[in-house]
Each structure stands twice: as C-alpha cells, then as structure tokens.
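Q: what sequence does this backbone want?
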C-alpha cells in the first residue's frame, strides 16, 4: 500500500464508538499520568525548600535536588517502562495498563507523607515506573485498535492529550503558592487516577494481541512475546529499536533540560522585580500558557503534517525548529512579555515532536514485540536522557541556565542524523 492512504478520505470516516471509547480512555490515563509526573516540575522547588529547611527558593541545594529528582524519574521510567512493556506483550494490554496506572497513582499520593528530600527522590522513581508503562501500552493499544488511515491521527491525539495533564499541574501551581501546599497537590492526583482505572476495566483486549498470543508455540511462544532476545537479537528489530531509542533520547533529554526549565527562566527574569510568591505564580502561568498554546498545537500538528508528508520529514522539520527556537528563547527573553511570546513558539517544536513517538514507534514492531519495542525506544531513552540532566547540572555553574540550554540544543543535530537513517513507515500495515 502507498502513503496516500492517509490522505484519501477523512481520518475519522468509519471509526466506531468503541474505537473512540478506547482513544478517550487511553487519553484520560495518559493525562492523569502526565499530571502526576508534571506535579514535580512545578512543585519541586517549594517541596525541596520545605524539606531542606532552606530560606530561599534559589538555594543551591534546592536546585541540586531538583536535578537529582528529575534523574530519578527518568531512570525509574526506564525500569518501569521495560517491565510493563514486556508485561503488556505477555499478559495483554488491558491488564498491564491497569497495574501501571495503580503504581503511578499510589506512589504519587505517598509524596504527601515525605519527610526527607530523599523520600521524594525515591518516590519519583516508582511513580515514573507506572507513568512510563502506561505510555507504551496506550500507544500500542491505540495503534492496534485504529485502521491504517486513522492510526497517525489517533496516535497524535493520544500523545497530545498529555498537555491537559501538564496544564492541570501548572494550574495548581497558580493556586497552591505556599511552600507547604505541595503535599496536597500530590495527594490530589490519586482520586481522578483511580476513576480512570475503573473506567479502563471496560476496555476489551486488543484483537491483534489476542491473535499473536493464539499462535502455535513453534511460531510465537510465550517466551517470544515480549522477548528482548528477539528484539535485540534480530537485525531488523534491533536497528529499529536503536534508532527509536536515539530519537526519544534527544526528545526527552531536551524536554527536561529545556522545556521543563521555563518556570526557572521566568523566575530569573522576574528576580528582584516582584516578590518571590508573585514570581512563582507568574512562572506557573508562563508554563501553563506554553503548554496550552505552543506545546498543545505542536503536538496536534504533528499528525496532519506526517500524513501530508511522511514520518521522517515531520520529525526533521520539528528538530530544525527546536534547534533554532530554544537558544533564541533563552538568550532573548529579557522581560516577562518576551517569555510569554517566545516560550510557546519554542514549545511547539521542542515538545511537539513527542507526538511522533506515539505514532512512529508502534509502527516499527510486530504485535508480539510492539509494547516491548515501543517501551524500549521511549523508556530506555529516559535512562539515556538522565545523563543529559547530570551533564546540565555540571555545566550550570559555568554557563548559567541560559548558556547551559544553548550548549545542550546541540542534541537536536544528533536527532536530525537519526531521522536521516530511520526507516519510513507511512502507508504500511503494522508488522505482524
């Protein structure tokens, strides 16, 4: 089949109510997981200031624990993503999804009881396990439920829904401004997550997974489903897995060292001009605006762009845009107004490319390895990107925040090379 199948007819033509239901529930699960994950991005400084007994939000120890907490989250995502990805290929998408969401919701709520900064660091690790597992399973499920002509748009919508979770977290930052409020913010994540888990019990198992699971043992054994020996031992799957891993490592690394530090950029711009609590509230608004404008539009735009062109072209355009706009934003934002203008444009490219992972990675692997391969690409990348956080922490004293971001934008050049050698999957049925 050729790539024009995605441009003939409306993507939603012939989609059933159940397929929409699967997409909605998968999106709600991803929204709640992102909400839990992004709570740390907006509440990390007041949480560590409170637990350390620091007198200033810009205390060096507060910033250091922020980096360590991010790194713990990324490493935990690697471990949990691999575990739940393999589990989804072996016991099914539905059961694995429920367990992954229970993990992230429960341990997010336990932040309320933290009495040491190291408690937060440890809890970030376990929360990330559930969050990472949910993404790989949800992306695989959506890809398997929707037909080829609708797959890109459904996958793009699935990942774009993450903006709502980040927006919820940023909204809480504008309401909960006192240092001790961070505990209640993490506790609030539990109840809506449990409601989504309940809704997910109404999802049926993927027919593609059931077909792969029913194959005779000599063709697809239980051991082969979710098998890393097949994923990394077969040249075709190994090459695809490593390219996907590299793409995600660039995207995730730059997300945490560029996109997630816009609140800190905003506070730096406002330092000495407004009281600390006002600066924190305005930083939360800037992050919220970036998410609901540039970030959200960038994520939604990836699917139509890849349908009009192809997967590789869309990735290349986003990498080039990010390579230009990240240094422009951090070097040129000298006022609060400039932050509000430049950050959303930067966010369009820096976070928008992430929608491509939910579209592209499930298309690289057969059903028996889909969740495992998708998780390997996205979640082992978390471990690799944790290294970029540590590099940023080392560079920070020498280059400050703005200079460090400019140095790290070089990662987008690596992304462009990976796009050049990546296989094209547009217009092809899912591998079986």
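A:
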């Amino acid at each position: 089949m050729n790539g024009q199948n995605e441009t003939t007819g409306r993507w939603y033509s012939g989609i059933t109510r159940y397929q929409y239901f699967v997409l909605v529930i998968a999106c709600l699960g991803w929204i709640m997981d992102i909400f839990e994950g992004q709570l740390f991005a907006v509440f990390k400084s007041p949480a560590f200031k409170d637990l350390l007994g620091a007198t200033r939000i810009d205390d060096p120890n507060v910033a250091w624990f922020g980096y360590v907490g991010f790194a713990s989250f990324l490493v935990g995502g690697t471990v949990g993503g691999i575990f739940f990805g393999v589990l989804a290929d072996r016991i099914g998408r539905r059961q694995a999804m429920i367990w992954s969401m229970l993990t992230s919701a429960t341990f997010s709520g336990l932040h309320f009881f933290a009495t040491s900064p190291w408690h937060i660091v440890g809890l970030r690790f376990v929360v990330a396990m559930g969050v990472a597992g949910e993404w790989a399973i949800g992306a695989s499920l959506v890809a398997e439920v929707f037909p080829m002509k609708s797959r890109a748009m459904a996958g793009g919508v699935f990942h774009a829904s993450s903006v709502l979770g980040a927006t919820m977290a940023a909204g809480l930052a504008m309401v909960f401004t006192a240092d001790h409020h961070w505990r209640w913010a993490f506790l609030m994540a539990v109840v809506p997550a449990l409601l989504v888990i309940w809704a997910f019990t109404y999802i049926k198992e993927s027919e593609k997974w059931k077909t792969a699971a029913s194959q005779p043992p000599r063709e697809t054994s239980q051991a082969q489903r979710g098998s890393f020996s097949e994923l990394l031992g077969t040249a075709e799957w190994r090459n695809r897995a490593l390219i996907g891993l590299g793409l995600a490592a660039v995207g995730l690394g730059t997300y945490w060292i560029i996109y997630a530090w816009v609140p800190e950029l905003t506070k730096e711009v406002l330092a000495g001009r407004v009281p600390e609590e006002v600066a924190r509230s305005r930083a939360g608004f800037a992050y919220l605006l970036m998410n609901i404008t540039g970030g959200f539009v960038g994520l939604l735009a990836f699917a139509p762009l890849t349908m009009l062109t192809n997967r590789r072209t869309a990735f290349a355009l986003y990498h080039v845009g990010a390579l230009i706009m990240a240094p422009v934003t951090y070097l040129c934002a000298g006022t609060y107004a400039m932050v509000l203008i430049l950050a959303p444009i930067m966010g369009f490219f820096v976070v928008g490319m992430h929608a491509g992972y939910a579209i592209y990675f499930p298309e690289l692997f057969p059903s028996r390895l889909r969740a495992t391969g998708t998780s390997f690409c996205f979640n082992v990348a978390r471990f690799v990107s944790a290294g970029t956080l540590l590099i940023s922490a080392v560079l920070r004293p020498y280059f400050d925040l703005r200079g460090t971001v400019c140095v790290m934008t070089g990662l987008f050049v690596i992304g462009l090379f990976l796009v050049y050698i990546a296989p094209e999957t547009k217009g092809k049925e899912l591998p079986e």
